[in-house]
TrEMBL record:
Belongs to the peptidase M48 family. Binds 1 zinc ion per subunit. Residues 137-312 form the Peptidase M48 domain. The keyword S-adenosyl-L-methionine does not apply. This is M48 family metalloprotease.
């Protein structure tokens, strides 16, 4: 997902503003990078203009009412009552707009799920069970996490965690708030070099610092606004388990994957890695895939990721 595309999508939502749009929860706009606050002020501005319009109409009617019969004066009184209802409605709607998913909720949920998975791995003696591999991943991840804290100041306050496992079922992920897991089985299978492993880590770090989890909740609320009333834990469960919702979110998630690829590659280049060496990760991904030209449920096809990374790396190499 390009930031520009996400931003224009949000602008479109604001332009299409109507009374119904005011009831869309604040988080529905969260797919715009750093524009959820401006969306809220757009709501406020819109409400204010609706009120101003209603009040000016009433003022005009008041003038006419003063000069005409008592029947018209009664109508004017009715209109005053209606405007009071309208004001009350707008305040209720604006209050409800804040009662949606927050980054703190998403990070709290991720921390809980992460603790559960870590406990499972520990009980099976599969947590940090290869010291050499753990040290290699940590040595590559540490400077990238420090760079993330500098470039994305919000993440400096996070309790970043990184664990490794030899469990063959895991590959690599980063949850909201910088909770990461990397599997040796996955890294061995692709025979990743240090640069390629740095690319994988940078991709995962981007998911966290670009608030991809929170934005996914925002998109789910945009698609199904009634979920604003759902308790957070149920909503969180559905995001990962409700097939109908997951199907609806698949293309959004694919755009987030492409964003994590592109932003991650540029991030690792800023960290001192060579673009071509980083892009090697995507070449191996495509090479080891049985169906390189097919999209997986929520991931773009490995061949398209490799092509995008190859083109970006060539541009960055040319600019060096
Ligand atoms: Zn990803």
């Amino acid at each position: 997902m390009s930031r520009l595309a996400a931003h224009s999508r949000c602008l479109m939502r604001i332009r299409l503003g109507s009374l119904a749009a005011l009831s869309v929860p604040r988080q529905a706009f969260a797919s715009c990078t750093s524009s959820s606050d401006s969306s809220l002020s757009a709501q406020t501005a819109f409400s204010t203009s609706v009120l101003a319009l209603a009040q000016s109409k009433l003022a005009a009617q008041a003038g006419r009412a003063a000069a005409s019969s008592s029947v018209v004066a009664n109508r004017w009184q009715n209109d005053v009552i209606m405007v009071r209802y309208l004001i009350a409605f707008l305040f209720i709607v604006q209050g409800a707009a804040a009662q949606t998913v927050t980054q703190d909720e998403v990070m709290g949920g991720s921390a809980k799920l992460y603790r559960e998975q870590i406990a499972d791995l520990r009980s099976g003696f599969r947590l940090d069970d290869d010291e050499r591999f753990g040290a290699r991943v940590a040595a590559l991840a540490r400077p990238l996490i420090e760079q993330a804290k500098r470039e994305y100041p919000e993440s400096a306050a996070w309790d970043w965690e990184l664990h490794t496992t030899t469990d063959g079922d895991a590959n690599a992920y980063a949850m909201a708030g910088g909770k990461m897991l990397v599997s040796r089985a996955y890294v061995d299978q692709l025979a990743l070099t240090d640069a390629e492993l740095a690319m994988l880590l940078a991709h995962e770090i981007m998911h966290a610092v670009l608030r991809h989890n929170l934005k996914e909740f925002g998109e789910a609320l945009r698609l199904e606004p009634e979920r604003a009333k759902q308790p957070f834990q149920e909503f969180e469960h559905d995001i990962d388990n409700d097939n109908a919702l997951m199907r609806k979110l698949a293309s959004f998630n694919q755009r987030q994957e492409m964003e994590a690829d592109r932003e991650g590659l540029m991030f690792a280049v800023r960290g001192g890695w060579r673009p071509q060496a980083l892009a090697g990760y995507f070449r191996k991904l495509a090479k080891h895939s049985h169906y390189p030209n097919f999209e997986r449920f929520d991931h773009p096809s490995p061949a398209s990721r490799w092509q995008a990374a190859r083109e970006l790396a060539a541009q960055l190499e040319a600019g060096r």
